[in-house]
Design brief:
The structure holds two protein chains of two kinds. Chain A has one helix and six strands, in the order E-E-E-H-E-E-E. By secondary structure, chain A is mainly beta. Chain B is of the alpha/beta class. Helix content of chain B is 28%, strand content 26%. In chain B, the strands form three sheets. In chain B, strands 1, 2, 8, 9, 10, 11, 17 and 18 form an eight-stranded mixed β-sheet that branches. An eight-stranded mixed β-sheet of chain B has the order 5-6-4-13-14-15-12-16. In chain B, strands 3-7 form a two-stranded antiparallel ribbon. Classes of the chains: A mainly beta, B alpha/beta. Chains A and B meet through strand 3 and helix 1 of A and helix 7 and helix 10 of B.
C-alpha cells in the first residue's frame, strides 16, 4: 500500500485517499467554442506515462482536500509534492 | 529432445505486417492474418517472453454476456471461436464450458442483471436468471443465506461460459502461426517507430534492429500508451495494476465460475485444483505489475462471505498485470490518425475471453485496410463522435 503525503495531514495510508487522475486538466475557458475533437481531448484523452506523472489525490477519509503529487508510475517513487 | 512449439526466429529486415506484442491477442492476430487472409509475411515482436504479460496473469474467464449489441456481437463471435478453437489449433486448451454466474446483491443490480439477460436473449447470447434457490442448486458452495450483509438475490447464468488454460492458448496460436510462416521474435522490444517524411509509420526500431513494414499493428495492452507516445499520439487509456491470486491445490469444490460485482470477487477452480480469484483494479496509474495488499484483503473478505468453506484455503500466490482501461470499458480496434499504424487495445480488465475474436477482427481490419464490421463500433473516433459503448456493468470488474 502506498504511503501518501497529504499536505495538511502528513503521511497517511492509501486507503484514506481517492485517486483523481492527471493533474492540470483545466475546464475549458470557453466550452461553446470547442470543436468535437477538442471536447474529446478535454474529456477523454490523458497522458499515461511510464515514469514521472503529475496526478491529483483526494483525502476523502481525512481532511477532504485535494492535492498534487509527481509520482513515478514505474517505481512508485514520489518525486514532488504540492497543493 | 524437447519439443519446440515455435521457431526462435531471427527478425528479417522487412515484413508486410509487424505485430507489436506477443500476448494472446497479438498471436491470434498473426494467426488469423495467415489463416484467414493468406498474409504470412508477418512478424510478431515481443519485448519479454511469449504470453508472459496479461495472457498469463488473468483469471481466464470466458463469457459473452455483455449488454450492448456491439459488444454482444464481438464477444459472442469470440465465444463461438473458442468453441472450436481446440480443433482449429490442434491443442488441448482445457477449455471448459462450466457456466458463469454473475451474482446480484441489491435491487438495482437485480434489475440491471435482468435487463442484461433480456438484452442477451435478443442478441442470441445464452442467458438465464436464477433465483437464490436455483443458485444454490447450481453451485452449492455459494452462501445464499439472507443473514449476510449483501445477500444473494439471484444471478445471471451463461452456461456456455467457462475457463481455459491461458498459457496453452498463447502456445496454440503461436505454434500454428509459426507453422503457417509467421516469425515470432521474443526479447525484442520496440524502442521507436520508423516514419516517412510525410509521417507515415513504415516500421519499428527494436532492440534487435530496425524492421520495416507496410503496416504496424500495436497490440500491447497496458503499454499501448507508452508506444503511442513515441509517435505523439494521446489515447483515452489509463494503465492500472489488476491483481489476482490462487490458493493452494484443493480437491474439486467449485465446478463453475462465480462473479460478484457488489462484494467484488470472481472465482473459479482450475483443473489442477487451485482456486483462482480476481480483484478490482488499483485506482492509481501504475506500470509496476504489483498492486496494494488492501485490495487482496477486500477480495478475500468477499470470497469468505460468499463461500464460507473457503476459510480453510491457504493463499499460495498473488500477482498483478497492467491493464489498459478505457473510459467506457470497451476496447479500441482499428486505424489511427497516423497512416500505417493500427491499434488493438483498451481491453482493460476483460481481454482474455476476447482473445480469438479480437485477433479475428483485427486481422480482418489490417488485411482489408478498413475496419471489420464487428470492429467498426470500437474505432478510436467514438470518443469524438460520442458513440461510447458503456460496458462498466457487464465488465464486472471494479474500475
Amino acid at each position: 500500500m502506498l504511503l501518501l503525503p497529504c499536505p495538511w495531514c502528513g503521511l497517511r495510508e492509501e486507503v484514506e485517499f481517492r485517486y483523481g487522475g492527471q493533474a492540470g486538466i483545466a475546464y475549458p475557458a470557453d466550452p461553446d467554442a470547442l470543436s468535437d475533437e477538442e471536447w474529446a481531448d478535454y474529456l477523454f484523452m490523458r497522458d499515461n506515462p511510464k515514469g514521472p506523472f503529475a496526478e491529483r489525490w483526494y483525502h476523502v477519509h481525512g481532511c477532504r482536500r485535494w492535492f498534487n503529487l509527481v509520482r513515478d508510475t514505474a517505481t512508485n517513487e514520489l518525486l514532488a509534492e504540492g497543493r | 529432445m524437447a519439443m519446440r512449439y515455435w521457431r526462435a526466429a531471427e527478425p528479417k529486415r522487412s515484413y508486410d505486417v509487424v505485430v507489436v506484442g506477443g500476448g494472446g491477442h497479438g498471436l491470434a492476430t498473426a494467426y488469423y492474418l495467415a489463416r484467414n487472409h493468406d498474409l504470412t509475411d508477418v512478424c510478431v515482436v515481443e519485448k519479454g517472453w511469449l504470453g508472459g504479460g496479461n495472457t498469463a496473469r488473468n483469471t481466464t474467464i470466458i463469457r459473452s454476456n455483455y449488454l450492448w449489441d456491439e459488444s454482444a456481437a464481438i464477444y459472442e463471435h469470440s465465444l463461438k471461436l473458442w468453441e472450436r478453437l481446440e480443433e482449429d489449433l490442434g491443442l488441448d486448451l482445457r477449455f471448459s464450458q462450466r457456466g458463469v454466474l454473475n451474482l446480484a446483491h441489491d435491487l438495482g443490480e437485480m434489475r440491471s442483471s435482468l435487463r442484461r439477460v433480456n438484452a442477451n436473449a435478443l442478441n442470441g447470447v445464452d442467458a438465464e436468471w436464477l433465483t437464490p434457490a436455483e443458485v444454490a442448486a447450481f453451485c452449492p458452495v455459494v452462501n445464499v443465506s439472507p443473514d449476510v450483509r449483501y445477500p444473494v438475490l439471484g444471478a445471471t447464468l451463461q452456461r456456455r461460459g467457462g475457463i481455459a488454460r491461458h498459457d496453452r492458448v498463447a502456445w496454440g496460436f503461436a505454434s500454428v502461426a509459426d507453422r503457417l510462416g509467421v516469425d515470432i521474435v521474443e526479447h525484442c522490444e520496440v524502442t521507436g517507430f520508423v516514419r516517412s517524411p510525410a509521417g507515415r509509420v513504415t516500421g519499428v526500431e527494436t532492440t534487435r534492429g530496425t524492421i520495416t513494414a507496410n503496416k504496424v499493428a500495436v497490440v500491447a495492452a497496458g503499454h499501448t500508451s507508452v508506444l503511442a507516445a513515441m509517435v505523439g499520439l494521446r489515447l483515452p487509456l489509463q494503465s492500472h495494476p489488476l491483481q489476482a491470486l490462487v490458493s493452494v491445490l484443493l480437491t474439486p469444490v467449485l465446478d463453475c465460475v462465480v462473479m460478484s460485482n457488489a462484494v467484488h470477487v470472481y472465482v473459479s477452480q482450475a483443473d489442477k485444483g487451485e482456486l483462482v480469484m480476481g480483484a478490482g483494479i488499483d485506482g492509481h496509474n501504475s506500470y509496476t505489475q504489483r498492486g496494494a495488499f488492501h485490495l487482496i484483503e477486500e477480495q478475500l473478505a468477499a470470497a469468505l462471505e460468499l463461500f464460507p468453506v473457503f476459510a480453510h484455503a491457504k493463499l499460495l500466490r498473488t500477482w498483478g498485470g497492467i491493464v489498459d482501461v478505457c473510459p467506457d470499458a470497451s476496447p479500441i480496434i482499428g486505424p489511427t490518425p497516423i497512416e500505417g499504424l493500427w491499434l488493438n487495445c483498451g481491453w482493460g480488465t476483460g481481454g482474455f475471453k476476447a482473445t480469438p475474436g479480437s485477433g479475428w477482427v483485427f486481422a480482418e481490419t489490417i488485411a482489408k485496410g478498413e475496419p471489420a464490421p464487428l470492429a467498426l463500433p470500437f474505432a478510436l473516433d467514438r470518443f469524438t463522435t460520442g458513440a461510447l459503448i458503456n460496458e462498466h456493468g457487464a465488465a464486472a470488474v471494479a474500475h
